[in-house]
Amino acid sequence: MSTGATDIIIPACPPFICELKRRDHSKSKLGDEQIAYMTAAQAAGAYVCIALGVDAAWEAFEDWLKNHVDR
Q1: What is the DSSP string of 40-61?
Q2: What is the pairing mode between strands 8-10 and 16-21?
Q3: CA distances in angstroms from 50 to 35, 42, 55, 61, 63, listed in the order given
Q4: Beta bridge partners of 49
Q5: Within a 13 Å sphere around the CA of 11, how many CA atoms are in the beta-carbon half?
Q6: DSSP symbol at 32
Q7: Residue 55 to residue 13: CA distance in whole angstroms
Q8: How far is CA 40 from the centre of its chain?
Q9: Three-class SS of residue 69?
Q10: What is the edge-to-edge ordering of all strands in the sheet holding 8-10?
Q11: pTM attached to this predicted model
Q12: Which of 4, 9, 11, 50 is in Cβ range 3.0-4.6 Å of 33 for a Cys bridge?
């Protein structure tokens, strides 16, 4: 495991990088290492998102599939 690695990583072209937080954002926080990891992943071309709850993660995943993955 890499320090700061996100909760969901799908290696593809582009990779899907998703940090999953509680729907109530006041009960979660991002660490500096997580921010650094996501910034580096985005700079390398990954699809990066922070999802507030599983529904948001699923929505981001569907967006990634529809708009960023060649099938």
Answers
A1: HHHHTT-EEEEEESHHHHHHHH
A2: antiparallel
A3: 10, 12, 12, 11, 13
A4: 18
A5: 0
A6: H
A7: 23
A8: 12
A9: coil
A10: 8-10, 16-21, 47-52
A11: 0.88
A12: 4
Backbone torsions φ then ψ of 4, nearest 5 degrees = 85, 0
Structure tokens at 19: 């940090």
Q: Are 49 and 61 in contact (CB under 8 A)?
A: no
Asked if 69 and 12 touch (Cβ cutoff 8 Å), the reply is yes
* 65's tokens: 């599939």
CA separation (Å) from 65 to 23, 31, 45, 70? Answer: 22, 27, 15, 8
Q: What is the pLDDT of residue 40?
A: 96
Residue with tokens 């979660």: 28
User: Please, what sign has the CA dihedral across residues 42, 3, 21, 66?
Assistant: positive
* Collapsed DSSP state (helix, strand, coil) of residue 33: helix
